[in-house]
Amino acid sequence: MAHDDVDPDDSSDRLTIGRRIRARRLERGMSLRELAAALDRAPSQLSVIENGRRDLRLGELRRIARVLDVAEEDLLRQEPPSRRAALEIALEKAQAGALYQGLDLPDLPVRRSLSDAAIETILRLHDELGRLHHERAATPEEARRVNGQLREEQARSGNYYPELEATAQELLARIDHTGGPLSHRKVSLLAAELGFTLHSVADLPHSTRSITDAENMRIYLPRERSTTDPRTTVLQAIAAHVLGEKEPADYGDLLRQRVEVNYLASAMLLPEAGAVQFLRAAKTQRELSVEDLRDEFSVSYEIAAHRFTNLVTRHLELPVHFLKTHFSGAIVKAYQNDEVRFPTDALGAVEGQIVCRWWSARQVFTSEDRMSPYCQYTDKPGGTYWCTSHIESGPGGEFSISVGTRFEHTRWFRGRETTRRFASSCPDPDCCRQAEPAQEQRWQGSVWPVARLHASLLAAMPSGTFTGVDRVAMLEFLDRHAPQEQPTDQALPH
């Protein structure tokens, strides 16, 4: 666009300007040809302006305004000059959109013979098609596609976000936290430093872990004890506030927000400087272990494994991968900074895919020793990997948390002396997905299992911008708990 062009926000502004020019021309009783002659322009040149099909230069706008005896500002106003003009603009925008273009329909000229009622009907049909298209897109298939794209972005960055590490450092500095485990008291101090009060309630909606009321600067937490560390819950709420998270526009936006919030909360529980110093010392002694990192900072094994993945590739030049796997073998979370080949679907997503039964992530469930770290080597199509796994329990059952690396890097890890070794040829079906021929023959035609089929496999993603949250219950909860007077401080529950 030239420096003297009128600067509309989008094509709808050009349409509005064009319709305002046309409306003023008709008010003056001028034909298109007469106005074009007064401007020393061809009628076709003026027609494309009135139809919003090209940008209008400021000098042209001034000449048109002068001939039509109207202020420039009047032609630039955002409001359509009439209801008919508003309908025509909306129809033009709809036809220019991706949804209409994808229908492979011919353009519908906006003529006087096209009644207002006809345009309104077309626009309503277009809106309904848009609603159905959006609902169809918000399916598990779309969720897997977006999840796969996000995982690729994370892999390119080594699952390390320097800007979030810096934010965590700034927040901890506000409460003079210099190192070591972040206590419950310091989490409460940080909330107070940011202007929040903490409130444990018995009626928090079942679909939420916490609710933040930014108007009254309150963070609501569940009163009952759960498997989730309350420090994590508070820090996630603080992280969302500090990052200025808004209601997500789509599922991809929601996933990215969750990644950022969880990362920042973990970075406050295990600050980069202290964690890296601890890990470097362990590497020097060839004693790297997730267990020691967990114990040093008093966090869950999963958070320690996640931070281990964030930091060792960036600072210790050790490419690793992370897996959270359900007892059934389905992947819940997966991050990789190395070349390991996770099972993926056609869209590149790994969540929900079944891990090979010979991998450490599933073999750990066969171990009777739940206290000692479980380690094993696995020969995979892409090379030999060493992995350590640990089992944690949650509301959904038992999960294994695994961190692995290629064979050549195992000399830095405790547990490298393990003699456990398995071979995996997955995704080759002969590896572990097919029963023995004799078994197949023995039971052929005699078995009819009833599958545990989750409704979410068939349904669209839950409606609303915060997927899975009952918005009605959440807003009713806020109405019940909105303070009538200045709130008082309340300590973080232990």
Task: Spell out the blueprint of helices and strands.
Blueprint: H1 11-27, H2 32-38, H3 43-50, H4 58-68, H5 72-76, H6 83-96, H7 98-102, H8 116-137, H9 140-156, H10 162-173, H11 184-193, E1 197-201, E2 211-213, E3 218-222, H12 230-242, H13 251-269, H14 272-284, H15 290-297, H16 301-316, E4 320-326, E5 331-336, H17 360-363, E6 374-380, E7 383-394, E8 397-406, E9 421-423, H18 437-443, H19 471-481
Parallel strand pairs: 1-3, 6-9
Antiparallel strand pairs: 2-3, 4-5, 4-8, 6-7, 7-8
What would you note in describing this structure?
It is a single chain. The protein is 44% helix and 12% strand. By secondary structure, it is α+β, with helices and mostly antiparallel strands. It has two domains: 11-135, Orthogonal Bundle (434 Repressor (Amino-terminal Domain)), CATH 1.10.260.40; 146-423, Arc Repressor Mutant, subunit A. Helix 12 packs across helix 13. The longest helix is centred in the N-terminal third of the chain and has 22 residues, at 116-137. The radius of gyration is 31 Å and the shape is elongated. This is XRE family transcriptional regulator. Residues 21-75 form the HTH cro/C1-type domain. Belongs to the short-chain fatty acyl-CoA assimilation regulator (ScfR) family.
